[in-house]
Amino acid sequence: MNAAATRNCLRAGMVGMGMIFDDTYRPFFERAHLEGLYDRRFADVDVKLVAVATRTGRRAERYRQSAGDRIYPFESFSGSAAVERMLQTELTFACVATPDNRHFEAAKKILQAGVHVLIEKPSVLSLQELDELVRLAERNKVLAKVVYHKLCDPDHKKLRTLFADGVLQHVNSGYCTLLEPKQISGEQFAEWITGRNPGTYVAVHYIKLIDFTFGGRLKTVMATGQRGIVGPADGGTWDSCQLRLVYQYDSGREAAFDIHTSWVTPDNFPGYVEQEVQFRFDNGVWNGHSRRRGVECTVEGKTPTELKISLNNHYNATFLEPWGERSQRGYGIEVIDRFAREVAYVEFGRDGDRTERLEKMRALHYNDLSADRQVVAAVQALEAILDRQQQGRPDCVVRVNDPRGGLVLYEPGRAEPEVLYGDPV
Ligand SMILES: NC(=O)c1ccc[n+]([C@@H]2O[C@H](COP(=O)([O-])OP(=O)(O)OC[C@H]3O[C@@H](n4cnc5c(N)ncnc54)[C@H](O)[C@@H]3O)[C@@H](O)[C@H]2O)c1
User: Fold this and answer.
1) What is the pTM of this model?
2) Between 408 and which of 21, 247, 309, 402 could a Cys-Cys bridge form, CB atoms 3.0 to 4.6 Å apart?
């Protein structure tokens, strides 16, 4: 018998094949198709993208044509029962990269089928949805994980390392901004932008970074936003928003973080996706800026549209390697590779039994859905505050683990608060 016939195999599915599929999942699956995954803990494992589910099937078909033999010959399903049909192909894991408000329905079906799931950020939009997915994953003994690739950015790993080692001590406050070009809201997301906001879409990266890096208990969420470019000035589609989170730590001390996001920055802005953070500690200040990370490149007729001026070669970039090979690598792809390794370890690991291995992988808080509670709480609060603002009820505040419930919305001038989520966060 040849080696391929005896190798273990991860059979993968993909729901949604848009921008992020092309950036990160595609290079992961193409590399894994060629090289498999090897790790001493589970040996040599094949990874096959066996089936995909998308809304219309057009992008899947286009990809199949362009990829040729760089990818496994996957089956493509589209239309309303696409996910169910994809799940009939005996998958080991499936990834969900549909628009933010369509993660839950797909992830639920995947977990119900007893298949491991990896969900793009933001995992889901409410704690009620999170509870249901975590329950399903536990019942069906599979992993439910979420992608926050900024945790794998070497700069953010260094921030966390310095904090964990006590070099940077107690964070007091900070700000983060992420500004997306207009092209994202105007073209890329035109199909699903109505009623959405850039905070849920990208502030969530920084909510996770703050939550995971500094720990603590989320206490208060405040937010506001602006409209009038993507949609009408009194509508439910937001151009930009500003979120403030207050955390409390075991010492009893607090910290506040402001996260500003937009998806209406001019397309020719040199930062393209402009990202900046500053965290102030008792004994230090951390400054990070995407345009000061190192590289700015201008090419006549190509930058800043076809080629970016501020190249983020750490996230995801194509390279001619010194040894002659062409590659695409970066932390955006590494985070998916890690998840596939976690699944391979659960299914084919050589130590302990499957239950022990599953528990070990679930205990990884950087991506486990059960550890995403405070992030989802912040997103649910943000969405509720923006919704009330649209209804002409601005300036609401959400308190977390209040005597009245886990997430409680207070509106100025209204005596009775509204409980968004009853159980403790
Ligand atoms: N990690 C990151 O930095 C990052 C960057 C961009 C997007 N994202 C996340 O990825 C997700 C997708 O974003 P995108 O930029 O790829 O969007 P996109 O609009 O480019 O693509 C969405 C894809 O989902 C498919 N789709 C839509 N509804 C579907 C349904 N009901 N069932 C099956 N397929 C469906 C569409 O056919 C399309 O292929 C979002 O949750 C977004 O927040 C993450």
Assistant:
1) 0.96
2) 402
